[in-house]
Amino acid sequence: MLRRFAFLPLLALSLPATAQTASPSEGPTPIFQGRDLFGLEWASDPQISPDGSQVAYVRRSNDIMTDRARSTIWLVDTRTGKQSPLAAGSGSHTSPRWSPDGKRLAYVSSEGGGSPQLYVRWMETGRTARITGLPDSPGALSWSPDGSRIAYLMRVPGEEPKLGKAPGPKPEGAEWAKPLEVITTVQYRTDEGGYIKPGHDHIFVVPSDGGAPRQLTYGQIDDGGPLSWAPDGRTLYFSTNRKADWELQPLDSEVYALNVDTGAVTPLTDRRGPDRSPVVSPDGRHVAYIGFDDKNLGYQNALLSVMNPDGSNPRVLTGNLDRSIGQARWSGNNSLIVQYDDNGLTKLARVGLDGRMAPLVDDLAGSGIDRPYTGGAFSVSPEGAVAFTSGTAQRPPDVSVWKGSERKLTTLNENLLGAKTLASVRPLAVTAADGRKIDAWLVTPPTPAPGGKYPLILEIHGGPFSAYGPHFSTDDQLYAAAGYAVLYVNPRGSTSYGEEFANLIHHKYPGDDYGDLMSAVDAAIAGGTIDPDNLFVTGGSGGGVLTAWIVGKTDRFKAAATQKPVIDWASFALTSDNPAYFSRYWFGAYPWEDYQSFWARSPLSLVGNVKTPTLVVVGSEDYRTPDSEAEQYYAALQLRGVPTAFVKVPGAAHGTIAARPSQSAAKASAILAWFDRYRNKGGSAASQ
Fold first, then answer.
1. Which contiguous run of DSSP H or E holds residue 46?
2. CB 94 within 8 A of CB 141
3. Nearest CA among 470, 472, 338, 509 for reference residue 394
4. Looking at CB atoms within 10 Å, which of 251, 263, 293, 566 has the fewest?
5. Sign of the C-alpha dihedral computed for residues 639, 643, 647 and 653 taken in this order
6. How do strand 235-240 and strand 335-342 relate by DSSP bridges?
7. b vs e for 649-675, b when ≥16 Cβ sit within 10 Å of the residue's Cβ?
8. CA 575 to CA 598: how far, in whole Å?
């Protein structure tokens, strides 16, 4: 007799008492709770004005009525810290960009409904004009040097491919099924965008005081930003891959010069590998860009280079820095400010045209606040003042400025978090079996441990080529508020430690990173505050892979929660949203060429060993690690009789599984409930 198959509702697991959320009528609580996610605010995309007196930034907050993050634009005075709203009405408001003279601010807004449009605010009068009426959202906004035009990227719709036709004619009034969908592209869906509609991204320019936009680029390829104007306003620099097989070469892009008058496009770089993010120096004598010579490695440092405006005399500036450059902005004509990750921190430094570096700040923070990833954003004024997003392990990103020294301008969460007793985060020294030093952090609950020792959650980052650091994390704070210590680690393969460290997992992930994680758990236990009989493990994406791998290798954990994992590398490689990338760079072969390599590294190959009760979590619209991966693992665990449950987050993609605050809190609650079910309490296992 077949048993009826059903997904476990997201909140069906009973919530442990320590994590329950009090209603407003019960009064305030000093412990961080799921409902507090609706009170958080964080800064992103800070844009400093040309005279350095103001910063326009995107202020994000969670709307409890719509259960979504809301984006508004605010101004903050760099001298006084005084704030004022610029675009804070209904809709989403993003991408603030100052005109060269600082008298106007362009931004993108969906105010009034429909597709987001380009707006311009005249700062002296406070008057705003909608500049465009576009069918799709504009992106990569860039003012011309004289302020008369704004360039942007926008998707241009294409024709639906056709193959055959339905029988006809259709009788009047008949209700037939929708037409067949025909797909002919290599990449036909993206994780957060879903199935891709026919069309391509191209460059447009529009008068900054309104008028008809003019399309500048064409073709069956996607042009990319950012867009950078030459000082004379006649040339735009951008990046794209215009080769015939561009769909099969996901990392092979070049920098191009676009003649704004004629539409002529000239390639300036020519090598195998990504050349991107061109920015022109104020005097027009140099074009800086980021890229590398592609060696088909799993991880490769992105280097900062400069060249002449015609593409001649290219030279690398950061060849002696064994770190990857994320962004670069000119500071005058002879130096650039660059952003890069180093040992779990996101830093800014000044790089001269001679390659010499001078550090500026090391506390940038990104906008993904559910987990403690590295990240951040910045901008530079003509005089060299820098605006950036800064944060700590106990505060989400605020706006800070650097003018010879660092100063924080906003305290967006002090009213909420200042009244909370948050978990503390401290570094933990870890030495791997081969003697390598591994960075790790231990999150300690704000309440004393019953019996003197805390249960421990090992929380593993995704990527796998990414990094955690001492940054704010709602997941970790919620776990700690429920009485669990949290351990997070940058095992080998993590970024911010150089190419050699990252590529220790090249063509063998998961592998020795497992040993690093176990060494970190042993180090946490050795500290004396962790209960070795109450260990739990979870992680998302690459962390979900390692969670499933770990329970196939050891029974030391009481329970596990694998989130949005890859379970079978062969099926993942051909169903993920970028099939041209993963096989080539992570395996060096396609599944049909070397299937055994794919299988040997698949957690599914170890499922016969699993005894650990394992929760499986995935977004219902995940196209990066498709939900079919999680479904395979859930089915295998069920067939083996391993305690399991399957949690689907409705409407969530891989990158947006924590985007809606109610779902983010509920997901953490479900994981805590699962762990609490198997947690030893007072020396005996909890009831199952």
1. strand 41-48
2. no
3. 472
4. 293
5. negative
6. unpaired
7. beebbbbbbbbbbbbbbbbbbbbbbbb
8. 14
Cis peptide before 116 (omega within 30 of 0): no
**Count of residues for the chain?**
688
Query: pLDDT tens digits for 610-637?
Result: 999 999 999 999 999 999 999 999 999 9
3-class secondary structure for 53-90?
CEEEEEEEEEECCCCEEEEEEEEEECCCCCEEEEECCC
Tally of CB atoms within 10 A around 682? 7
Distances (CA, A) of 592 to 212, 245, 589, 626: 51, 21, 8, 20
pLDDT, tens only, 500-555:
999 999 999 998 999 999 999 999 999 999 999 999 999 999 999 999 999 999 99
35: left (phi over 0), alpha (psi -120 to 50) or beta: alpha
d(Cα 637, Cα 476) in Å, to the nearest integer? 27
Question: Count of CB atoms within 10 A of residue 439's CB?
Answer: 24
Residue 324 DSSP class: -
Closest CA to 97 of 42, 151, 156, 135: 151
Place of tokens 């807004």: 109
Among 542, 548, 623, smallest CA distance to 579 is for: 623
- Cis, bond preceding 314 (omega within 30 deg of 0): no
Determine phi and psi for 611, rounding to 5 degrees.
Answer: -120, -15
Among the listed residues 472, 469, 557, the one whose alpha carbon sits nearest the alpha carbon of residue 514: 557
**Reduced to 3 states, what is the DSSP secondary structure of residue 331?**
coil
Q: pLDDT per residue over 337-376, tens digit each?
A: 999 999 999 999 999 999 999 999 999 999 999 999 999 9
Task: Give the pLDDT confidence score for residue 5 in this predicted structure.
Answer: 29
**Is the distance from CB of 423 to CB of 446 less than 8 angstroms?**
yes
Average pLDDT along the chain: 93
- CB count in 10 Å sphere of residue 431: 14
Going by C-alpha positions, the residue among 77, 111, 68, 67 that lies closest to residue 93 is: 111
User: What is the rounded distance in angstroms from the CA atom of residue 72 to the CA atom of residue 91?
Assistant: 8
Query: Residue 632, by phi and psi: left (phi above 0), alpha (psi -120 to 50) or beta?
Result: alpha
Element spanning 328, H or E: strand 325-330
Distance, in Å, from the CA atom of 507 to the CA atom of 404, rounded to the nearest integer, reads 44
Residue 444 near residue 529, CB atoms below 8 Å? yes
Q: Is the pLDDT score of 21 beyond 50?
A: no
Tell me the mean pLDDT in the region 395-412.
Answer: 97
What percent of the chain has a predicted confidence (pLDDT) above 70? Answer: 95
Distance in angstroms (rounded) separating the CA atoms of residues 281 and 302: 20
Q: Which of 192, 7, 96, 14 is closest to 670 using CA atoms?
A: 14
Q: Which residue type sits at 173?
A: G
Cα–Cα distance measured from residue 289 to residue 279, given in angstroms and rounded to the nearest whole number: 6
Residue type, 6: A
Q: How far is CA 525 from the centre of its chain?
A: 31
Burial of 1 (C-beta count, 10 Å sphere; 0-12/13-18/19+): exposed
Backbone phi, then psi, for 240, in 5-degree steps? -170, 175
Q: In angstroms, rounded to a whole number, what is the distance separating the alpha carbons of residues 624 and 578?
A: 8
Q: Under DSSP, is residue 303 helix (H, G, I), strand (E, B) or coil?
A: strand
Alpha-carbon span 307 to 581, nearest angstrom: 29
In DSSP terms, 12 is beta-bridged to none
Residue 628 DSSP SS3: helix
DSSP 631: H
Taking only the tens place, the pLDDT of each residue in 134-151 is 999 999 999 999 999 999
Q: Are 541 and 510 in contact (CB under 8 A)?
A: no
pLDDT of residue 62: 95
Rounded to an integer, what distance in angstroms lies between the CA atom of residue 620 and that of residue 628? 10
Tokens of 533: 């009989």
